[in-house]
Amino acid sequence: SETVVNSSKRHITSNHSILDNVSFSKIAASVNGDDVMFLSNDNSDKLFSRFFDPAYSKYVNFFKHISDWTAFVITDSSKKALRMEGTALSAPDPSYFLNVFRDVDGSQPQVQDVLPASTVFAVSMPMANVGKYIDAYKKYLDASSQMDHFKNVSADLESKAGMSPEKWASMTGIKEIALVTFRDKKNLRNVLLIKGSKHNDLPLAHNKYVGFADVVFGQLFSLKDESSYAESYGWEIVGSQVDVNAFISLSSPKTRLMSLLNDADIYSDCNVRNCTLFSYFSLTEFPPILSKVFSSYMAPGFARTLEGISYSPAVLAITKESNELKI
Predict the structure, then answer these.
(1) How many CA atoms lie less than 13 Å away from 154 in the CB half-sphere?
(2) N or C end of the chain: which has fewer CB within 10 A?
């Protein structure tokens, strides 16, 4: 745009360079490749307003504070796939959410093995020790001035359920928690999946721990309706009665996502070790979602690009390697 061109001219004539930014210099020195993409997380609000629907603006602060800079090296750019490997730079300040992942031990995600083929979006946090995660998360909350809210909500929930959210997470022995959005005919449905130390097959029942996952794991892992739960396929499934029943029906072994992932040759990308965050998004499973997620400026372009494509998945994983986080 003309604005960007004029701004660039001013920077050149005044001898200003992005390399004057100490954080950028560090992230630039940490990556090596012919095609590199840099993201300033501090300016992610501008990207969100341009690329995404305003309904998703609530996630802006999370991305602004997840790290300082993020860099991606494009390792494969072909007709079949686009693959990138990234690294994130953040100060040791615990107010950066990414440092929560640095302080915990990741694990191999398992949610991809139980997702229905009609999954539109899924995000999960695998963990080796939920107690260690809670300690790191509370450091983040304290540093970002959210601890008082955490304590107040925890106390309120404990008074209603007879157990604190922290104790609930520890007693359940949570090894992975996931949010899943999936298509059920013409409807989108949402459930939380919780992988504990032990799960039996239990029929649908009333959920007395509504809002507990939100407190312990953040707003991303919350639903409008968490009134029901059941245990099936080795997971606790939380949501509305209709959504829980639909998930159980659609995630039977014969109708799971695994076959699609294998056909697309990306199943191995899901089975990563020392993973602290895993996410899956299908751009083609429910085309109307494009106009709901992306801005009116971007959605038409995505729709045209995906014309004639039957399956276009995107997978993201954050892993921990020698105390460094890789994306």
Answers:
(1) 17
(2) N
DSSP bridge partners of 125: 177
Contact between 87 and 28 under an 8 Å Cβ cutoff? The reply is: no
- pLDDT at residue 11 in the model: 82
pLDDT (tens digit per residue) in 297-311:
888 888 888 888 888
User: Residue 261 burial (CB < 10 Å; 0-12/13-18/19+)?
Assistant: buried
Contact 216, 165 (CB under 8 A): yes
In whole angstroms, give the CA distance from residue 304 to residue 197.
Answer: 45
Residue (of 84, 87, 89, 88) closest to 35 by Cα position:
84
Task: Write the pLDDT tens digit of every residue in 37-61.
Answer: 888 887 777 777 788 887 776 666 6
Give the separation between CA 77 and CA 200, rounded to whole angstroms: 44
Contact 258, 113 (CB under 8 A): yes
Cβ-based neighbour number of residue 221 at 10 Å: 21
Angle ∠(316,317,318) on CA atoms, nearest 5: 130
Q: How many CB atoms lie within 10 A of CB 272?
A: 18
User: How many other C-beta atoms can be found within 10 angstroms of the C-beta atom of residue 90?
Assistant: 22
Mean pLDDT of 169-194: 96
CB 228 within 8 A of CB 234: no
Residue type (1 letter), 254: K
